[in-house]
Amino acid sequence: MTEMTGAKMVVEALKEQGVDTVFGYPGGAVLPIYDEIFQQNEIRHILVRHEQGAVHAAEGYARSTGKPGVVLVTSGPGATNAVTGITDALMDSIPLVVLTGQVPTFVIGSDAFQEADTVGITRPCTKMNWLVKDTDNLASTIHEGFYIATTGRPGPVVIDIPKDVQFATGTYKKKPKESPSHYRPQVKGDIEMITALVEALETAERPIFYTGGGVINSGPGANQLLRELVDATNVPITSTLMGLGSYPASGKNWLGMLGMHGLYEANMAMHGCDLMICVGARFDDRITGRIADFSPGSRKAHIDIDPSSINKVIHADFPIIGDVGHVLEDLLKVWKSRGRKTNAEGIAKWQAQISEWREVRCLTYKASDTIIKPQYALERLEALTKDRDRYITTEVGQHQMWAAQFLGFEDPNRWMTSGGLGTMGYGVPASVGVQVAHPNSLVVNVAGEASWLMNMQEMGTATQYRLPVKQFILNNERLGMVRQWQELLHGERYSHSWSEALPDFVKLAEAFGAKGIRCSDPKDLDDAIMEMLDYDGPVIFDCLVEKHENCFPMIPSGKAHNDMLLGEADTQGAIDAKDSVLV
Amino acid sequence: MSPLNIEKGSTSHSAYDLRSHLSDVIESHTLAILVDNEAGVLARVIGLFSGRGYNIDSLTVAEVDHEGHLSRINIVTSGTPQIIHQIKMQLERMVPVHEVYDLTVAGPHVSRELALIKFKGKGDHRVEALRIAEIFRANVVDSTLESFIFEMTGTPEKIDAFSDLMRPLGSVRVSRTGVAAMLRGA
């Protein structure tokens, strides 16, 4: 129990929580905390260029390390700028502790300069938030914030700290051995239900694992258990966008990503399975397509730490509430103790059927030797980087889906993308956050030029901290995904989906102190990518690609998994007016 | 397209078929929610309902445990069984929520509401109003030559019935507290 100022408490509490990096931007209402940060060397502060960038960078840091990300911003505009990133973290279950400055308690409610009702604004987009009005409660609230952000289904928390609370002196309370909170999410699954699921797994003819970001959030152990279970049972596995890497892309049971732009074999297997084991995923509409026709012949198990995810969209025949790691451990234990049985004959037939589906080769595209196809660019990026210590971030759009289709992930925590919220502008700051956490690794942000521009100011951060992030921009001078939907759904009326006045990305790179590379000829592509990889510093790679390429396979919204469009020839009249209201 | 020939629209053939909750009949449920008595907790609960498009038919909130800093929120809500289930799950996962009781499911419960009903009327209607009040055991808590204020406690239905009966007799204004509810028995 020591006396200190609130500002010092913030720094002490962060140290006690093992924080080594904070992403932030100073301002009037957090100056006392910045003064304390100045007077110590244990916590590194990364100065971003925009508060949204701070939050996405912290997300990239958190997603690639498994540790919570920490953000420090000022009151008013500092806090409101952070809201998009906080919402993104809530949708994708990323643990974040966001510290916001607030005007002094005695002027709260008076429309003071840079005052905003931060707790009110962030209430629906945080897992929990607090306004700390008393310095004595500050340290314990920060400890509680870390506990809530990282326990159960992870998520962002906001701690709003008025400036007078930062100046005032109070008693520092150490991190408690056990949180005093009554918040205690259930981690062990119901063993009877797990046993029932094992029974179903033993006899299933067409089982499938459908995994998501929850496996990655559960930690390295959960990923190991998943791999062991999948390979021991020989059951095919598909994953959501958020779950890529929990099972290796080179694994023999890997089907590829499922969903709206998922692989043919993955979606057909989901549609045709008789037992679906959903592990840490949430039946998002991008996954299910039309609910009424979603995997109509299957019994469904749903393993999730968040009880509200189960039966929210799809009825679960085997609902199992618990942490993925704990449940998989019990599942394996029960399955082994019952004699490691599977319906080998059924599964062999099922695998044969899946091989036929694989033969469709749904990712085939029309190659060109004059124009760089975006798929080709990603194939080459994959070929030239897959053996490296590599982390990939993305922006949002066509390039994101192509990256998910064409890049292979062997390990978890290597793939950072905005899934649930679909935040354009995520990739540049996320790549900065990942590179801060892994200074010696290769970090590539696969981007579209439109998304990339949304948070390009963070290139300044990359230059300042000598972060050699590689910005791989698939430049089609279009909002590609919007353009694709307008082509398919809106009579080819391309309303505001192209950019007429794009910057010269090579000159832009130079202006930021980075290296710029432009490539427009497929013959030069490999050399250009190698030049990017060999350069010791940040690079903006302007890859000029085919402007009108569409992303396939595609399940149009309102359709079922077996109604996939595989290429241009399938698109005529595929989507009727009734379904075009769905996003 | 499917080589498995699964008929479109066919449903799961489950050994654990608990599909009754997919019915689309709208039910009314009384929920009692025990929460930390802290700033903004009511906004948090209400924000959940408005943000996700759930109904609030009635709401009461008050501190019930001063030492333990606990408040009890009683909400009457309506929706399909699936929506009601989702409301409870969404409430339970909120950090300041300790427990959620669905009194409608839990069994017989007592629910009571307090109402003040101001009646304005003249002559015979005044006499008739008093007679009806007596039948409903409503007390007169204020009186002028042209008006009464009645105070009554009862189920929401009883208060509805009383105010409906009074309306043809004169002008009626009602102030209600919303439902407080508790499970019967120990």
The overall pLDDT of chain B, averaged over residues, is: 87
Strand content of chain B: 35-45%
End-to-end gap of chain A: 54 Å
* Strand order, largest beta sheet of chain A: 3-2-4-5-7-6
Structural class of chain B: alpha+beta
Provide mean pLDDT of chain A, rounded. Answer: 96
Rg from alpha-carbon coordinates of chain A: 24 Å
Beta-strand proportion of chain A? 15-25%
Which blocks of ≥5 consecutive residues of chain A have pLDDT under 50? none
Radius of gyration of chain B: 22 Å
Helicity of chain B, as a percent range: 25-40%
Number of helices of chain A: 22
- The backbone outline of chain A, from C-alpha atoms, is globular
Straight-line distance between termini of chain B: 60 Å
Major β-sheet annotation of chain B: 5 strands, antiparallel
Offer a few descriptive terms.
heterodimer, A: alpha/beta, six-stranded parallel sheet, 22 helices, 17% strand, B: 186 residues, five-stranded antiparallel sheet, four-stranded antiparallel sheet, 5 helices, 27% helix, elongated
Question: What is the gist of this entry?
Answer:
The complex is a heterodimer of chains A (583) and B (186). Chain A has 583 residues and is α/β, with parallel strands linked by helices.
Summarize the structure in words.
The complex is a heterodimer of chains A (583) and B (186). In chain A, strand 4, helix 4 (77-91) and strand 5 (96-102) form a beta-alpha-beta unit. Chain A is globular. Helix content of chain A is 38%, strand content 17%. In chain A, helix 1 (6-16) runs parallel beside helix 6 (138-150), helix 3 packs parallel to helix 4 (77-91) and helix 15 (374-385) packs across helix 16 (398-406). Chain A has 22 helices and 20 strands. In chain A, the strands form four sheets. Chain A has a six-stranded parallel β-sheet. Chain A has a six-stranded parallel β-sheet with strand order 11-10-9-12-13-14, sandwiched between helices. By secondary structure, chain A is of the alpha/beta class. Chain B is of the alpha+beta class and 186 residues long. Helices cover 27% and strands 37% of the residues of chain B. Chain B contains five helices and nine strands, in the order E-H-E-E-H-E-H-E-H-E-E-H-E-E. Chain B has helices at 41-51, 81-92, 103-106, 124-135, 156-166; strands at residues 27-36, 58-65, 70-79, 97-102, 109-120, 139-143, 147-154, 171-176, 180-183. In chain B, strands 5, 6, 7, 8 and 9 form a five-stranded antiparallel β-sheet that branches. In chain B, strands 2-3-1-4 form a four-stranded antiparallel β-sheet. Chain B is elongated and about 55 Å long. The N and C termini of chain B lie far apart (60 Å). In chain B, 24% of the residues are buried. The A-B interface holds A 119-120, 123-124, 127-128, 131, 148, 152-153, 181-183, 196, 268, 271-272, 292-293, 296-300, 306-308, 310-312, 315, 317-318, 353, 356, 560, 562-563 and B 1-4, 6-19, 21-22, 39-40, 43-44, 47, 51, 82, 85-86, 89-90, 92-93, 95-96, 98.
